[in-house]
Amino acid sequence: MLRVIISCLISYVLGSYPSSYLFLKFFHKKNILLEGDGNVGGTNSFYITKSLKTYLLVIVFDLGKAVAAGLLSYYLLNDLWLATLVSGVFSTLGHNYSLFLRFKGGKGASTNIGTFLLINPVIAIFFALSIGFVFLSNKYLKYTRNEFVEMLVRIVMVIVFVYFFKPDYALHALLFQLTSIIKYATEKQFFKPAKSNN
Question: Measured between alpha carbons, how far is 155 from 38 in angstroms, rounded to an integer?
């Protein structure tokens, strides 16, 4: 039990590392919390800076902190199922509610992908593609003006895919996506306009 608690704490602290905040602060002299939509993540980094290099750096670091949390948890727990469940949930919570930014943060997509990489790279690829698919499909079909609805479409896609592709990890997919819903709920962003409509 103690090892599980330690894994939770390590994962939360690693997830809290605010890569996008630091990269924009040092390389672009911008405060990501005060620009764009205030989201501490890769997408807002790109909208603010228009820099593909910065965007990729943020994504790599956000993926990396989730992978590091997963590997350390696996070292402590010696159980991939439990290690990825614990590290995935807590690194995403750390990313969404960063210890270093007064509990502000992102929405956890990159940290989800990082954990899915450890479970099965195919799931990670599907998750990443689902983000692009939902964004582009809504941009051209305009089935919603709401970012939260976009996210719900993606959530259903990912959970259903994992359920059929790797059913033992369906709980992981459900809980990882639940962290995004909690983020919208705690910040009252249910009616936030979708970027795909811009």
Answer: 22
Q: How far is it, in rounded angstroms, from Cα 113 to Cα 101? A: 22
**Ranges of residues in the chain whose predicted pLDDT is under 70:** 143-144, 187-198
Closest CA to 195 of 153, 134, 108: 134
φ and ψ at residue 126, rounded to 5 degrees: -60, -45
pTM higher than the cut 0.90: no
Angle between helices 170-186 and 109-119 (to 10 degrees): 170
**Rounded distance between C-alpha atoms, residue 178 and residue 79, angstroms:** 23
Interatomic CA distance for residues 70 and 91, integer angstroms: 9
Tokens of 92: 């995403």
Give the closest residue to 65 by CA, choosing from 121, 11, 119. 11
Residue 194 structure tokens = 């979708």
Tell me the two tokens of residue 73: 């948890």
User: Cα–Cα distances in Å, from 21 out to 69, 166, 175, 195?
Assistant: 20, 34, 26, 20
Evaluate whether 105 touches 180 at the Cβ level (below 8 Å). no
The pLDDT of residue 183 is 81
